[in-house]
Amino acid sequence: MAFVQLSPIFLSLLFALLSLSVAAQTSRNIMSPGSSLTAVKDGSSFCASTSDEFAFGFKQIEEDGFLLAIWFNKILETTVVWSANGQKLVPEGSKVELTSNGWFHLVDPKGKQIWNANPLGNEIARAAMLDSGNFVLFGHDSQKLWQSFAQPTDTILPGQVLKEPAKLVSRYLETDYSSGRFQFKVQTDGNLVLYTTNFPKDEVNFPYWSTQVLDTARFSLNFNLSGYIFLGADNGSIISTISSNAPSTQDFYQRAVLDYDGVFRHYICPKNDSSSTGKWSIVSVTPLNICLRVTEKTGSGACGWNSYCTFNGTIKSCHCPRGYSFIDPRDVMKGCKQDFASQSCDQTSSETDLFDFDEMPNTDWPESDYEHFQSVTEDWCRQECLEDCFCSSIIFRDGECWKKKKPLSNGREDPSIGGKALIKIRKDQKKIRTDHSPSSPGDIDKKTDQSTLIIIGSTLLGGSVFLNFLLLIAACLVAYRFRQNNSKVHKNVQFISNMNLRSFSYEELEEATHGFTEQLGRGAFSIVYKGFLPDIPGNLIAVKKLNMFNGSDKEFEVEVSAIGRTHHRNLVQLLGFCNEGEHRLLVYEFMSRGTLANFLFEDQRPTWHQRVQIAIGIAKGLLYLHEDCNTRIIHCDIKPQNVLLDDCYTAKISDFGIAKLLKIDQSVTTTAIRGTKGYVAAEWFKNQPITLKVDVYSFGVLLLELICCRKNFDMNVEDEHKMILIDWAYDCFHYRRLDLLVEDDEEAQMDMKRAEEYVKISIWCIQENPSIRPTMKQIVQMLEGVMDVSNPPDLPSFTS
């Protein structure tokens, strides 16, 4: 073998090149002493993790305002998870540097220090952006001297633990990263609490949600890699679950944020779609309705002064009552100002006749009352407020009258409130608008501008009678066209006052569905079509056309009202309706993944984790219908075809068209047999009272289908003993061979203990005696492992 002799110079150059190459490969996520990042407008100044999923560096927020931050680097939409200088953005040319003497800080272009992360003056050897989203400063002994996970802002990520005294502080606004009005903290007493703050001070003011754990033990808020968020003890035990319905962190990016509106939300985003859309979906919200939770005596509430709060299950909205407008439309938390002159208290000139009331059903402003009267009529209450110049509004409910003073606080609108609020406004103010939605900024200015133009035009053309005649004709045409357009707008954007439901015209829905051409599904009483509306979030809708609805307008309104008042992440949301002549249609949010039946029986088999999360989601949706609704609802037809899936495979119950509604004080009702063969409980056939337990039975059958990935009746199986799923499942349970139910499913076999528990839950659900079946609340607790599952009794058909 021949050897080639290399010169010392060549070897030196080769080793230098290799060293540079290794450095480039191994330090792309590392900042070493003497290195820095500079704020530039092209967005190139950052340090990415080795997977490129996270980046640390500068994000441009304003024209000349930069934020030192950590963000998701593979998602097009900027999603910041940590920031250093939210209180004070820095200009272009600012630097974050790791100095040669081990000092890590942010300075402006003049060298003035804005922020630093030097813990106790220790010398920092390197900084690294990790794939977990954690930015870490290491010492010379590789010890972690500082990390962003221990100094969170408003977000926690999978793998992150929040220990006392660390806390989450909301942003001021969605695009303003300075400290806001809400905090989430683990206390020394072991409790995990959401607080309003005494803004602009950062001290806590009012607790509006907590885990209600009082213990001196060391607890922490955990976000584990399975997507669970919980309050846990140091020994690893779970004390209280915050969110447990998320998919795998391998397939989805995840974050949990104390948003600027005070709601703690768990978000997920598909990794395979992130490069194109980067759409975040909400897994859970805490609390379930912040509008009803915040009732503070020394603050404005969930929204600003004189405003009121609504919550649709995921999004909080703030509104101004009629006669009021936002002080700053960009920051609704500043509240609403009065747009008319207050009633004079001068006794010599009574202004009682100049004022009237605007009615707002199911609305209240707690803690703003200064007088309270009982056993009075609404007319008496109205007159009492009209004659009181200090009275700005009244609440009337069940013969009780509360007089309110300004500024109004803790405003909320919700069906559970009942009664009505009566806002005192000048009579001429009532004519400005005919709905409760806030005026668009500039609406009044536009009307003023139009009036001014007409006056100027009349003056210029006033010298000629003929021209004035032409002007009159032109004005009439403009007025007619304006009225036509205005009526069209109001026709298309009508809302039911006590719900966020839109009233559509049949023509509008016919156009949105291209003449009802693309079917999504068909049932005995309806056909569902796919539609497109540009002003609906996501643009796509599902239009359910009722073909056999023979009831009255009143009965249709009852169904719409019941559906419209339901808001839960595991229920398909109703957006609006059409009740025009013979046409009765319901407009729902579009569910991109279709029905659970298609996903479970026709497509590639869902993962075991997906099936578990779907089961828990359906159970939580039914629990809401049974116990948390203003009007209890028996669904009566729970089956895979009536469960839809969104982008993230979140299960949402649909089709309330055949539901039998219960009043709050009712527990049973008798009706004709409803539902689908195979999912119908025995009491339907025995002329027995129908209770919420019929849904429990159907859920038990559906749970078995989820476990086994097969239909409840299948004639194609080779063994006739396996045709009826509930029979076969009980045989497997009776003979202790539950492994046969999931023999072709490796994932389920790896989690056999849970699979066995779920089979036992399903057998409890399908008991013939309704009183033996568990409630949906108990089922949710058993599915989540909070309640033990005992062995179910024998089913009558299996007793030998």
Question: What would CATH call the homologous superfamily of the largest domain?
Answer: Transferase(Phosphotransferase) domain 1
Main structural class: alpha+beta
Task: Assign a percent range to the helix content.
Answer: 10-25%
CATH class of the largest domain equals: Mainly Alpha
In CATH terms, what is the architecture of the largest domain? Answer: Orthogonal Bundle
Give the tally of structural domains: 5
Percent in strands: 25-35%
| Terminal residue distance | 86 Å
Q: Please state how the strands of the largest beta sheet are arranged side by side.
A: 36-37-41-42-40-39-38
CATH topology name of the largest domain, in short, is: Transferase(Phosphotransferase), domain 1
Low-confidence stretches: 1-26, 433-467, 482-498, 659-673
Q: Which shape, going by the Cα principal axes?
A: globular
Descriptive account of the structure:
The structure is a single chain. The chain is globular and about 80 Å long. The longest helix is centred in the middle third of the chain and has 28 residues, at 465-492. The chain is α+β, with helices and mostly antiparallel strands. Helices cover 23% and strands 28% of the residues. It folds into five domains: 22-150, Agglutinin, subunit A (Orthogonal Prism), CATH 2.90.10; 152-287, Bulb-type lectin domain (Agglutinin, subunit A, Orthogonal Prism), CATH 2.90.10.10; 308-430, no CATH class; 499-590, Phosphorylase Kinase, domain 1; 594-798, Transferase(Phosphotransferase) domain 1 (Transferase(Phosphotransferase), domain 1). α10 packs antiparallel against α15 and α11 packs antiparallel against α14.
